[in-house]
Amino acid sequence: MLQAIEFPTILTDNQHIDIPSDLQSQLKANQSVRVIVLVNDKVEEKPKKKRQLGTLAGKISIPDDFDEPLDDLKEYMC
């Protein structure tokens, strides 16, 4: 009877696959084992931390003349 066991692992620097120790203890010496390797091309990203809204409240101010043309660019404006 075949039994499928899935576990996450990485390929080590010397091209070995690490088998978790709890799984190793379930295997018997000279037991026939079939290994299927599925390669995940997508790099799994760590979940992003949720942003805390309002953390910069009162720390940023926009001057009243923000939308006014800059004197340095007068020659380029019609």
Task: Give an account of the 3D structure.
- The protein has a domain at 1-25.
- The mean pLDDT is 84.
- It has 78 residues and is low in regular secondary structure.
- The radius of gyration is 30 Å and the shape is elongated.
- The chain contains one helix and no strands.
Please identify the oligomeric state: single chain
Described by the principal axes of the CA atoms, the overall outline is: elongated
Note the beta-strand portion.
under 5%
Structural class of the helices, strands and pairings?
A: little secondary structure
User: Could you state the order of secondary-structure elements as H and E?
Assistant: H
In round numbers, the mean pLDDT is: 84
Set out the fold topology.
Blueprint: H1 21-24
Keywords:
78 residues; 1 helix
Summarize the structure.
This protein has 78 residues and is low in regular secondary structure. Helices cover 5% and strands 0% of the residues.
